[in-house]
Design goal:
single chain; alpha/beta; 15% strand; globular
Amino acid sequence: MTTTSIGQRTLGTTSSLSVSTLGLGCMGMSEFYGTPDEQSGIDTIRRALDLGVTFLDTADMYGPFTNERLVGRALEDRRDEVQLATKFGNERNPDGSWVGINGSPDYVRRACDASLERLGVDHIDLYYQHRVDKTVPIEETVGAMKELVEAGKVRHLGLSEAGADTIRRAHAVHPVTALQTEYSLFTRDLEDEVMPVLRELGIGLVPYSPLGRGMLTGAVTRESLEADDSRATGRFPRFSGDALDANLALVAKVKELAADKGCTPGQLALAWVLAQGDPDLGVVPIPGTKRVAYLEENVGAVAVELTHDDLAALEQAVPRDAVAGERYGDMSTIDA
């Protein structure tokens, strides 16, 4: 049973989906951010539901494949409480090796059926194309996704890391409910072209990594990352060399503002993302964690109210172009 409510927001207008004000990214429970702990992940998901966090995000490639199974196990008796999102398109082999980005219609159908089986559900509430396949016209990919809606396997469609033109073309085939993309105090490039298109077409925004892959929590140092953590391997240039030092200096400013506000740095950073929503743009961040304590801290961000002065102070502390390093070492898979 849900014991606490953090409220709801609506993603999209043409094909709208009501979700909890804050979502939960489940990726790190299975891969990328240190040693996985399945039971801790399940406990975190179930605690999230108790707190009113009912918008859960996974993908077939996380694990690969193991994260969807973990989420499915956590939801065995609570499916009706959840808005469940998963993704296809980053194709991997069972051994974890990468195949490539795949947006072919046949693959869309096969990937959806496989996700449904792993999750143990009869439908997916929000189904995203994880990355845009530049070798397949977006109209063909979304056409296959539309067929999944018509078959009752999927309720709403989404895109991830798609550029403005791709979003327009996709939306013309079938209403897009949400765009998932990286967005935080540290990543704001979508404000120029993408966010105006979302407002125009009535598409919601689901920011992933709203805490800058954890850096904005203030807990990341050069020594804090495990050897198997992808942030320590060079995959994310912002966590390496001089860039890390420069970015931690920005985080120090966020810490000071958070102390003045009486909240944690992570809560302040999440409150900033939540404040970017407006009547024309539903914004629902999905901070990821595999620990209950961090989940509970993140939920506290919903209660942090930012004034105009607070927002201005954050803009001054972390100017839009001040962050050092690209967000990925390889940006070729990002649609522009």
